Amino acid sequence: MDDKSIFSRHVVNISPAPSTFGMLARVKEKERRGERVIDMSIGEPDMDTPEAIKEAAMKALRDGKTHYSPSAGIPELREAIAEFETKRKGVPISPGEVIVMPGGKPVLLYLLLALTDEGDEVIYFEPGWGSYRVMLEMLLVKPVPIRTTEAEGWRINTAELAQRITERTRFIIINSPNNPTSAVASLADLEEIARIVQDHPRLLVLSDEVYSTLVYEGAKHHSILSLPGMKERTVLMESLSKAFAMTGWRLGYGIFPEPMVKCVVNLISNTISCTNTFVQYAGLAALTEALPEIERLRAIFQARRDLLVKLLRDIRGITFVEPRGAFYAFVNIKGTGMSSEGFSDMLLEEHSVATVPGTSFGPSGEGYIRFSFATKLENIEEGIARFKKAVERISTL
Ligand code: PLP
């Protein structure tokens, strides 16, 4: 099966999901050899799923919720999501606009299937989550990345955005809070993006807000969907993965403009049929009984973030923008003269600290490495002490 020619154009260049998954195997291998690896590459909360949610799943199993469910999701969960999002977004969202999916990820996949033809274009911002590019290429859609920079606090450059829209642009992906930069989009920037989108009648926004509950330092999460006239032009990608420490459950949802719902539900019913039924009851418990867990988990991340920022500030020769959301710090290591891959490799091999090279988030991530603070305080302390040693050693060479 080495002959690449047997594969379709959809997959011929496909790589494993970038960042975390490749690193995980190397971490496990080192741990098998008895080394203490500090894993700061992780893209998921390390906490266990709250008990009330697990109980609800077990009850659902006992109650025989083991059959297919409607392709758009069980009505109770769609209602709970609509109520939850109406409150957060400040605009009315009806259960009929909610589609439950196995995680946030499939929202992009189904949106691409629903809206794009070969050669269409989708704009996203870079450094950005690696799966955007892979999924676009898989559907033969042209990725149009626009750079954000550390110097501008990783803000979206709206002037460039306006210039890069063509007749083939189908949608723009916004990701706030951002992976990997941890930037949180300001209301003013979102208003500017909305103005640009409204100048183009066919253009939509995919707003990836899977980190929406994780903001720090008084930063406020805003959604472009809440802005006047934008609900009809926005698809929301949301997930219970990060907010409730439920990554492995695979439970997320999309909120779609009403005219798109039927098409997306048809795609689901003909491909995966539906999202796991008993998991949906767990999601219902999360959004009805376990809402205080969101703040409890956020506060844990806030303490970790504060420690990480304090420790990083103490290292000479690196720079970074303080994370305002998600659970990452995107650190500039250009002063060491090493490449992202080279530095990340050295940190793992010589100091047993796992990070993700910035280039996993596109070429503009060169010169950066991503630290995740989804790990315990003592691991952050030890990991950054080892990182500091590595940086200091290079600068004395
Ligand atoms: N969007 C971003 C930016 C992410 O980092 C992730 C996961 O790491 C996702 C979406 C998808 O999350 P899930 O499919 O678990 O909801």
Defining key terms:
14% strand, four-stranded antiparallel β-sheet, Aspartate Aminotransferase, domain 1, 2 domains, alpha/beta, seven-stranded mixed β-sheet, binds pyridoxal-5'-phosphate, Aspartate Aminotransferase, domain 2, globular, 13 strands, 397 residues
TL;DR of this structure?
The chain has 397 residues and is an alpha/beta fold. It folds into two domains: 4-48 and 293-396, Aspartate Aminotransferase, domain 1; 64-289, Type I PLP-dependent aspartate aminotransferase-like (Major domain) (Aspartate Aminotransferase, domain 2, 3-Layer(aba) Sandwich). It has twelve helices and 13 strands.
Produce the secondary structure layout:
Blueprint: H1 20-32, E1 38-39, H2 51-62, H3 75-89, E2 98-101, H4 105-115, E3 121-126, H5 130-138, E4 142-147, H6 158-164, E5 169-175, H7 187-198, E6 204-208, E7 234-239, E8 252-255, H8 258-271, H9 277-288, H10 292-313, E9 319-320, E10 328-332, H11 340-351, E11 353-354, E12 356-357, E13 368-372, H12 377-395
Parallel strand pairs: 1-11, 3-4, 3-5, 5-6, 6-7
Antiparallel strand pairs: 2-8, 7-8, 9-10, 10-13, 12-13
The structure holds pyridoxal-5'-phosphate.
Pyridoxal-5'-phosphate binds at residues 43, 103-105, 129, 175, 179, 208, 210, 239, 241, 247, 252.
